[in-house]
């Protein structure tokens, strides 16, 4: 070990300690009134959109407008009441954003239902949204403190792996083996697994981050590239490999990409070692090249991305990606107006993976940018919550949950707009899909819970243990794993 | 840890910027190429989302639109489809458009920028104005008379107003109903296959897209050229032409159908359609003068649009004298559309002037407000007015006492020229019966209609096929219809 190495390491440690100093304990205003007003605004916006669709398609206000508005409004108010009663200090932006995105999603799905008679995707989605809000209320009300979740880390990971493995027993749908069908409902268990896995990663990394950062072997020549001991790193890498392996078996590449990204981001945030990013990117590119070459399902996706109009030139008509690009282009800057586009040409995935194309065509670049910014704001509130907390688990959990939303939104939005190869995923809150909506409500519920802890007045050191880089080991998790 | 959360947040911000930049690329920068991609169906959907404008004949629409509720929503309907098919053509979701439906498509579909009340307004609203109407020059009575005159036999009729070039009738037979091709369903595909497989070729527009050897009707051109060139100065002087006539430089002898053509004066030769006289006259006039006159009448013009394209009629410009002799009687490789021969007849009727024919009087918005009118058309002098006067005399003689008496209309002045065109290898095909004519009513100052009729009748006995017998009655019916309306 060289002298410079020691100095650098000490410096890094000092910086971490300084940066992780407790946030000012000033009492933040609760702003529940702001939240309520924003929720009312969000519901009104969605009702307006619902009416606009009806006016554009039939010239009359759709008969279900009142019911739709009342349904969404009641759901939003119940969620708001739960927050007001059980997490009164929570961030006031999270819930209105979730309500607005979910409401817009319902409008877009309703709008596409009109093009495909006999389809009742919007009412079904409303049922799932209700379930999601119910779960939201349950989490906000029943989970007193997010740190309780640390105790269930191993339960979470077992459940996550079980959920991930479950669809292997069911037949593949459209090339991916990620659904299970029960009594007419199809559920995507991988959606739930990602929250559970985030909880596990947060708990494990919070407990072992010191060991991960500072213990372990060094390569003599590259002493900044220091690998933690297998004993510490082993379990988490094993879990991660298992989950990604299962997903590759199921051909759910979007979700495996998400898990990979989540793992790298959380590891980086927990250990602060840039090396993880480098290793992560290296592994990702190796994996991407290997999978892209060998796996036909993925290979065709990459080919579609590189040459979206190849099928047209071959005389087979436009494929889904080309249709999606046509949709976005047709929208232009201001969009065609709700109900007046032709995104239904995309075909069977128009309501799920490609829901964004409808938004892009009918709301234009303006509406699409607004949607992206809404996601950006949601993610930003998540990270901000992470920053303002002091317990490592909470910080990692908030960061992880926000990263899930960010990565998922980017992967699917980038896919349908031709920025990156397309991987089938659900746009959070917007896309048709019960498991996805329920999961996203759970994510927002956890963020609300965590942000309540972060913004709660009168925190004491005992309440929130200092986030010491050399903090005491002896957590339940490290105790078990050690 | 704080620093690294910030890094992660910054990374997400980067992803957001990438998404926004890419959305800008797709929706603004490259949207034009995506919009214009042939596989993008939005243009077709917008095009059929509203009823198509109508084509009007005599102030009444002969077209309509039917709401199917399908993706390509409005289908074309036709009133008297077969009667007007050579004019309207078809407008099909699958097979595109032809003839007026094609040439006037911008107006009919609402894409023409002239249709919007305010410039740029429709760019702002992204709407498309309702389709405009095409008001045709057709005379419905003449159209019907021509169609019924042909009575399903293969052939065509073209009638124009000599003083303007307005097309009064344009009929092709056998015809078809363009309505069977509108629409999205399998029926249209079956009809398309059936019509294309039909040996009678009902979708062929014989009036403007088919050229025939004009036969003796071309003698109008030859006579006009000879008179203009001064080869003949007196209609009643002997022409010093032998019978039979040996084609120059060959041993082939050209004969006549009838007797008395030897040395016949131009008037008699024209009335009785003497091949020998006109073959010699063409040779005497010379290739240059013959070519000039033929081209002044509109032959070899590859760019006639009425507004849809008309097949060019041809008069070969590099002929030896024997070929010139045959070409001068409308044989060898001289070919003409019925519309072209109507123009020849109209030029005689209108003091030697050839007017560019046209079919669309004006275009209107849906409410009827005029957007554009036909305006003045270019015309050119095919022969001297004095020549035209003498040609009228000759053509009147044909109807009064020559081969075209079947075209005479009591109380009207009618001029005409018959033709029986040989064709096929060794002239083995059933000949085509031609008749070109014009007519002036009792109270008219100048002729009101010029007609060309061609009948290709495979069922008739060869000897019965004459322009005077088969084609002249049809021409008469058309002229009567115009004079009576």
TrEMBL record, chain B:
Task: Output the SUPFAM superfamilies linked to this UniProt entry.
Answer: beta-lactamase/transpeptidase-like (SSF56601)
Provide the alphabetized UniProt keywords: Signal
Could you tell me which Gene3D superfamilies the record lists for this protein?
A: DD-peptidase/beta-lactamase superfamily, Penicillin-binding protein 2a (Domain 2)
Domain Penicillin-binding protein transpeptidase stretches: 155-480
- Which residue numbers delimit the Penicillin binding protein A dimerisation domain? 52-133
Q: Which residues form the signal peptide?
A: 1-23
Q: Which domain of life, per UniProt?
A: Bacteria
| Name used for this protein in its record | Penicillin-binding protein
| Organism lineage | Bacteria, Bacillati, Actinomycetota, Actinomycetes, Kitasatosporales
């Amino acid at each position: 070990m060289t002298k410079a190495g020691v100095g650098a390491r000490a410096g890094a440690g000092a910086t971490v300690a300084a940066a992780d100093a407790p946030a000012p304990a000033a009492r933040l205003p609760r702003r529940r009134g702001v939240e309520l007003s924003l929720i009312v605004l969000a519901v009104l916006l969605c009702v307006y959109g619902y009416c606009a669709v009806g006016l554009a398609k039939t010239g009359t206000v759709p008969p279900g407008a009142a019911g739709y508005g009342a349904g969404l409004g009641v759901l939003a108010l119940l969620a708001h009441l739960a927050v007001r009663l059980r997490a009164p200090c929570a961030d006031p932006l999270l819930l209105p954003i979730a309500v607005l995105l979910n409401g817009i999603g319902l409008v877009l799905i309703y709008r596409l239902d009109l093009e495909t008679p006999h389809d009742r995707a919007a009412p079904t989605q409303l049922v799932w949204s209700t379930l999601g809000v119910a779960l939201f209320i349950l989490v906000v009300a029943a989970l007193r403190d997010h740190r309780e979740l640390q105790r269930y880390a191993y339960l979470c990971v077992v459940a996550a792996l079980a959920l991930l493995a479950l669809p292997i027993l069911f037949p593949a749908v459209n090339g991916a083996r990620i659904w299970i069908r029960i009594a007419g409902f199809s559920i995507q268990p991988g959606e739930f697994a990602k929250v559970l896995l985030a909880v596990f990663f947060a708990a494990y990394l919070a407990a072992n981050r010191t060991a991960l950062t500072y213990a372990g072997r060094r390569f003599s020549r590259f002493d900044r590239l220091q690998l933690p001991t297998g004993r510490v790193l082993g379990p988490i890498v094993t879990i991660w490999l298992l989950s990604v392996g299962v997903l590759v078996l199921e051909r759910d590449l979007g979700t495996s990409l998400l898990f990979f990204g989540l793992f790298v981001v959380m590891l980086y945030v927990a250990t602060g070692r840039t090396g993880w990013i480098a290793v992560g990117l290296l592994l990702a590119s190796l994996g991407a090249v290997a999978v892209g070459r060998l796996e036909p399902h993925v290979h065709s996706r990459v080919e579609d991305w590189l040459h979206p109009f190849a099928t047209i030139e071959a005389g087979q008509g436009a494929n889904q990606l080309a249709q999606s690009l046509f949709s976005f282009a047709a929208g232009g800057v201001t969009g065609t107006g709700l109900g007046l586009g032709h995104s239904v040409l995309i075909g069977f995935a128009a309501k799920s993976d490609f829901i964004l194309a409808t938004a892009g065509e009918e709301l234009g670049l303006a509406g699409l940018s607004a949607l992206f910014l809404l996601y950006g704001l949601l993610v930003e509130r998540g990270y901000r919550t992470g920053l303002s907390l002091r317990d490592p688990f909470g910080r990692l959990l908030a960061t992880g949950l926000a990263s899930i939303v960010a990565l998922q939104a980017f992967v699917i939005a980038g896919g349908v707009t031709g920025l990156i190869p397309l991987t089938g995923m659900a746009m959070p809150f917007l896309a048709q899909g019960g498991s996805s909506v329920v999961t996203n409500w759970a994510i927002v519920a956890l963020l609300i819970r965590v942000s309540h802890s972060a913004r709660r007045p009168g925190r004491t050191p005992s309440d929130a243990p200092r986030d010491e880089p050399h903090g005491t080991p002896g957590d339940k998790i490290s105790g078990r794993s050690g | 840890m704080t620093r690294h959360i910030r890094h992660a947040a910054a990374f997400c911000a980067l992803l957001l910027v990438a998404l926004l930049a890419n959305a800008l690329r797709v929706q603004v920068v490259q949207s034009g190429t995506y919009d214009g991609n042939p596989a993008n169906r939005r243009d077709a959907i917008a095009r059929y989302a509203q009823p198509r404008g109508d084509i009007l004949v005599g102030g009444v629409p002969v077209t309509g639109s039917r709401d199917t509720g399908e993706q390509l929503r409005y289908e074309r309907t036709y009133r008297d489809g077969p009667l007007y098919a050579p004019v309207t053509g078809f407008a099909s979701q699958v097979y595109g458009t032809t003839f007026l439906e094609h040439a006037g498509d911008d107006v009919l579909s609402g894409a023409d920028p002239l249709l919007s009340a305010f410039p740029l307004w429709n760019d702002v609203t992204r709407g498309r104005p309702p389709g405009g109407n095409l008001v045709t020059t057709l005379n419905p009575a003449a159209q019907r008379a021509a169609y019924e005159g042909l009575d399903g036999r293969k052939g065509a009729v073209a009638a124009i107003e000599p003083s303007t070039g307005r097309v009064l009738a344009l009929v092709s037979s056998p015809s078809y109903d363009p309505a069977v091709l509108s629409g999205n369903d399998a029926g249209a595909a079956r009809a398309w296959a059936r019509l294309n497989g039909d040996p009678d070729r009902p979708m062929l527009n014989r009036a403007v897209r088919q050229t025939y050897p004009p036969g003796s009707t071309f003698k109008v051109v030859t006579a006009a050229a000879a008179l203009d060139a001064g080869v003949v100065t007196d209609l009643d002087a002997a022409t010093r032409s032998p019978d039979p006539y040996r084609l120059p430089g060959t041993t082939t002898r050209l004969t006549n159908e009838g007797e008395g053509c030897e040395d016949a004066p131009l008037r008699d030769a024209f009335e009785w359609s003497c091949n020998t006289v006109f073959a010699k006259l063409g040779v005497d006039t010379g290739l240059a003068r013959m070519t000039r006159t033929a081209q002044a009448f509109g032959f070899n013009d590859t760019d006639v649009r009425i507004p849809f394209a008309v097949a060019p009629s041809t008069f070969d410009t590099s002929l030896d004298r024997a070929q010139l002799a045959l070409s001068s009687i409308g044989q060898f490789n001289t070919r003409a559309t019925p519309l072209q021969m109507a123009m020849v007849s109209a030029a005689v009727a209108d003091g030697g002037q050839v007017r560019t024919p046209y079919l669309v009087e004006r275009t209107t918005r849906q409410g009827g407000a005029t957007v554009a009118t036909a305006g003045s058309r270019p015309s050119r002098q095919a022969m001297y007015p004095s020549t035209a006067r003498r040609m009228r005399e000759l053509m009147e003689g044909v109807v009064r006492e020559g081969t075209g008496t079947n075209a005479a209309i009591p109380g009207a002045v009618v001029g005409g020229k018959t033709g029986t065109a040989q064709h096929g290898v060794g002239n083995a095909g059933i000949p085509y019966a031609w008749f070109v004519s014009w007519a002036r009513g009792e109270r008219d100052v100048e002729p009101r209609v010029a007609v060309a009729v061609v009948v290709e009748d495979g069922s008739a006995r060869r000897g019965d096929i004459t322009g005077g017998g088969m084609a002249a009655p049809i021409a008469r019916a058309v002229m009567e219809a115009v004079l009576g309306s």
